Amino acid sequence: MSSAGYSAGSNGGPVPVGTGKVEGAKGRPGPAGTGGDGDTGRSGRLADRIFRYCAYGAGILILILLAAVTLFLVIRALPAFTGDPRVRHETILSLSGGRAGGFWQYVGPLVFGTVLIAGLALLMAFPVAVGIALFISHYAPARLSTALSYVVDLLAAIPSVVYGLWGALTLVPGITGFWKWVSRHLGWIPLFAGPVAAPARSVATVSVVLAVMILPIITSVTRDIFVQTPRLQEEAALALGATKWEMIRLAVIPFGRSGIISASMLGLGRALGETMAVLMILSPGFSYSLRLLRPSTSQTIAANIASQFPEADGPGVATLIATGLVLFVITFIVNYTARRITGKVGAK
């Protein structure tokens, strides 16, 4: 007698058991253990491999682009460090108007002005951006929240030259009187000591323009983080008797802290590299000065490159590219620091 057993089939008849075949998903026999889905499994694995290769390629591509930019800056900036000392000295004298004789004497005030203006812009934009993001995500009615979100995203897409035109043609004439009032009442603070620039093409004015420029960027990213706060955490805080502000302080802000830091560093990066708005508004200077309202005290690296490049010769171009390399390093340090801070905050 055969050792193969029999069991009841779907139609009541005997079906051999252990014959090596199973009934497919649609009643068709298929290979054992596949359930008739062999083709689907193979296509899924192929799509997974293709996606993995594309992801690897994208990651490698961005590293190659970063390495190419770094290599370009280093190669083109080498003459500013290794060329004829006399030529380098004359080039620095020409670019600085006789106020610096060496490269680091030349780039130092530019670094100071860049960090000062970008830092002031971030200091003004950050609290306002967080407040707007909280209003859009937790306080505004649904229709108003949607409309404000569209407006914020639209402002983030406006070119910097438009902000520069607005600042040069509207803000500079309109804010001069306010800066005079600030200097008259708060002039005992060194930051606001006079004389006030008239028109107000000063560090304070250009910082306001940059703050308005980076405000939509920080707001947009922060809003997207806040709306992702788990609903259960918010409801749990409210159920324990917390007010809405306490719920935001205990649930929303801790959840989005790393995203808030990333958004602020993104805005700071744009402010550090901004060119046209600064070039159109700021009266350039070449000093280490914290007098925000005075004219001709500071200049940024990006605006200096844009203003000096058209008339620069070979050594001058190399020197300007070397200052661009310094700005590249500053931006890298800012992003690296932000990543470290975000990682530590996210680990808590």
Overview of the molecule:
Helix content is 71%, strand content 3%. A hairpin with a 5-residue loop joins strand 1 and strand 2. Helix 5 crosses helix 7 (203-226) and helix 11 (301-308) packs antiparallel against helix 12. It has 348 residues and is mainly alpha-helical. The longest helix has 40 residues, at 38-77. The chain contains 12 helices and 4 strands. The protein has a single domain, classed as MetI-like fold, CATH 1.10.3720.10.
Give a brief outline of the structure.
The chain is mainly alpha-helical. The chain has helices at residues 38-77, 79-82, 85-96, 103-139, 142-156, 160-186, 203-226, 231-239, 244-273, 276-281, 301-308, 314-347, and strands at residues 5-8, 14-17, 22-23, 29-30.
Structure summary, number of beta strands: 4
Low-confidence stretches are: 1-34
Kindly estimate the percentage of residues that lie in beta strands according to DSSP: under 5%
Kindly name the structural category: mainly alpha
User: Which CATH-level-2 architecture?
Assistant: Orthogonal Bundle
CATH C-level category:
Mainly Alpha
Question: Which strand order do you get reading across the main beta sheet?
Answer: 1-2
Please name the CATH topology: MetI-like fold
Gyration radius, in Å: 31 Å
Number of domains: 1
Helix content: over 70%
Query: Termini distance?
Result: 70 Å
Overall pLDDT, averaged? 85
CATH superfamily: MetI-like
Total helices: the number is 12
Q: SSE order in H/E notation?
A: EEEEHHHHHHHHHHHH
State the major sheet.
2 strands, antiparallel
- The best one-word shape is flat
InterPro entries: MetI-like, MetI-like_sf, Phosphate_PstC, Phosphate_Transport_Permease
Subcellular location: Cell membrane
Transmembrane segments: 53-75, 110-136, 148-169, 189-215, 271-290, 317-338
Protein name: Phosphate transport system permease protein
